[in-house]
Amino acid sequence: MKITISRIVKIHTEKTLVEFSTLYGEGLSSLFTLEARENRPYDVEINIDDDFYWGKNIFTSMSNTPSIRHEAETTYITAELISITEDGCGSLRLGNSIIFISLKNDNKDLIFPSFVEILAIQITLYPTNI
Q: Its domain of life (predicted)?
């Protein structure tokens, strides 16, 4: 996914906390590089380490439009859930990108594909064009 770093929030030993912008909106995440530069475009893979529970931090979305926004330390992502494996690995499509998430309980009423909103805290971006 293509992102641009809007603002460097905090520099850690191994990761840098950044606000980033995409075609779908703005989010907050760690960036796995010490070379972060504001207003620089990056091609990244998105890793989300949160465990998702239906009704707690993943919901069926009323919107069918991909989006990213953040408030405080939570990033809200609306994306298309395209599959869930038997072991709880969910695949989200956000534009041309696929993001894998861990689902810890079932939603038996869900029909695929279906737009969902997730509330993510543990997001890391891994640059692929460095």
A: Bacteria
Chain centre distance of CA 23: 13
38-58 per-position pLDDT tens digit: 998 889 999 999 999 999 999
**Bridge partner residues of 48 (DSSP):** 123
pTM: 0.90
Within 8 A by CB and 6+ apart from 86, the residues are none
Convert the pLDDT of each residue in 63-91 to its tens digit: 999 999 999 889 999 999 999 998 999 99
